[in-house]
Design goal:
The chain is of the alpha+beta class. The protein contains 20 helices and 13 strands. It is extended and about 110 Å long.
Length: about 525
């Protein structure tokens, strides 16, 4: 059909400056099923007395902590993590304006509230929200899936302190001090006493200063080699100060850390999966541990350990203290399968669906058959407390020793030895030791691993192992890749814990909104 020639383009009327006789409220402009209403409803139900108790009377009025909490959580739900970004939203975004009641806290107020006020109060609030979700049947804190990930700290990657370097530098100072002492004894033997620095178990600034003073006094008015004089001058100026610095650095490191960043002393250098340069560069980071159920985060903890193995006990202790009840069972990967963890879970009567380090390899027959005579594959006679060698001869118990792990756990190591390996046709395949074969076995660890294997191979164990892959691991993928949180904004373990709590709270509410 031919188009009419008399038609004109018609636009809707645009009255940008039209004044409304009855202006709509913010509440009317937000649809009833919008996610911001879920955040508001849930956080209205929680008790924030721990938070309000931090405020002191007097002075000017303060922004209400419940309002600030709602704004923060909603910002984290929408991937806005900086205080300046949140300040902008409160001033210009209708949903934040509704939560804030048209109040406009600035970025300093938001940041102080997040980094200071929430340190002791966010955990109880998070626990209450999880309890509410449990009452709705969205998750079950009795069956948990645990895993960890490393998130980069807000710290300089190139300003670091290494514990090994401190020990090396101490030994260098000790060696060079001994060389200076021996030289001084040759030049002025009559003026030197028997206080030999090589006998010091550990040198410190005071001992070094005293020794250098004695050497300087002995070599006074004596002909001294030019290089020795230069080294002595350098030692006088630098060594005592350096040793004082090393002592301070060791206090920051503590007993179980090997490194830290100078710009965030709580952060430890760890190997990250996000290695864009492909050079294995270590970065300052925190080890974030979470326990989930139905992809909801039930508990979270922050650790300075580089491996997951040494975090499980502390993490579960925190979980039990948080909910005042222990989980019925836990499912975790092989990174947690140590004797200490197995024993602790058994003592606490928590059913452990936790792999040990060799579990997956033992399921592969090709790999399993490559080394058929290793100690873990030998038959054990529990009644006689002896192992059976590949030829069928008994290996008698020789004794036991106690070895402490890096965490201080006492591990009992039993020793067994064969009677006579001479002339055995399996000797070359069995072992490469000079005499009769001798093996060291942690029998308790062996027992615990066998229990774990048996449990993991049941139908329930197989189901648990499968579910772990799509219960806890997607949570980290969601936070890092979908919501772009790969680096903390705040510094210090306490503040990083708050930030992790906000992430966890936002994740759970986001899941509830989508349910």
């Amino acid at each position: 059909m031919a188009k009419r020639q008399d038609l004109k383009v018609v636009f809707k009327q645009n009255n940008q400056h039209q004044i409304m006789a009855i202006p709509p409220t913010l509440d009317e402009l937000i649809r009833m099923d919008h996610p911001v209403r879920v955040v508001n409803a849930v956080l209205e139900r929680v008790d924030i007395s721990v938070l309000t108790g931090q405020y002191r009377p007097g002075g000017t009025s303060s922004y209400h902590p419940r309002m600030l909490l709602k704004v923060l959580v909603y910002a984290y739900i929408n991937n806005i993590y900086s205080s300046r970004g949140i300040e902008e939203c409160v001033s210009s975004h209708i949903h934040y304006m509704w939560l804030a009641g048209m109040q406009k806290p600035d970025h300093n107020t938001i940041n102080r509230f997040r980094s200071e006020r929430l340190q002791k109060s966010l955990q109880p609030i998070f626990t209450q929200v999880v309890t509410l979700l449990c009452e709705e049947g969205l998750l079950n804190i009795k069956e948990i899936y645990t895993d960890g990930t490393k998130i980069e700290a807000n710290a300089n990657r190139y300003t670091f302190v290494w514990g090994r370097a401190i020990k090396t530098n101490r030994e260098k100072i000790k060696t060079q001090l001994n060389e200076l002492w021996q030289y001084a004894r040759k030049v002025a033997a009559s003026e030197m006493d028997d206080t030999d620095p090589s006998g010091f178990e550990k040198i410190d600034a005071q001992k070094v200063q005293q020794t250098i003073d004695k050497i300087n006094e002995a070599l006074k008015d004596k002909p001294v080699d030019k290089q020795v004089k230069q080294k002595l001058n350098y030692a006088t100026k630098n060594w005592p100060a350096n040793l004082k610095k090393y002592e301070q650095q060791e206090q920051v490191l503590g007993e179980h850390r090997s490194s830290y960043s100078k710009t965030d002393t709580d952060a430890t250098f760890m190997r990250m999966k996000e290695d864009h340069m492909k050079n294995g560069q270590l970065k300052p980071a925190y080890n974030v541990q979470i326990s989930t159920n139905n992809q909801y985060i039930a508990s979270y903890t922050i650790h300075q350990n580089t491996t997951d193995t040494n975090t499980l006990r502390e993490h579960l202790t925190h979980h039990i203290r948080q909910y005042k009840q222990k989980p019925a069972n836990i499912t975790a990967d092989a990174g947690y399968g140590s004797e200490e963890n197995y024993q602790w879970l058994e003592t606490k009567k928590i059913t452990a669906y936790v792999k040990h380090a060799r579990f997956d390899r033992q399921q592969n027959e090709t790999i399993k058959s490559k080394a058929p005579f290793t100690a873990d594959k030998l038959q054990y006679n529990e009644q006689k407390d002896e192992y059976i060698c590949p030829l069928g001869e008994p290996m008698k118990h020789q004794g036991w020793t106690i070895r402490e792990t890096t965490t201080g756990y006492p591990q009992i190591i039993d020793t067994y030895k064969a009677k006579n390996c001479n002339g055995c046709f399996l000797r070359e395949a069995c072992h490469q030791q000079k005499g009769n074969r001798e093996i060291e076995v942690a029998n308790n660890f062996r027992r615990l691993k066998q229990k774990a294997e048996k449990r993991l191979k049941t139908s329930k164990g197989i189901a648990k192992r499968k579910k772990r892959c799509f219960d806890v691991e997607p949570v980290f993928a969601n936070l890092k890749h979908n919501h772009h949180f790969k680096r903390f904004m705040l510094r210090g373990k306490a503040k990083v814990t708050v930030e992790t709590g906000l992430l966890a709270l936002a994740h759970n509410l986001r899941k509830k909104i989508a349910a």
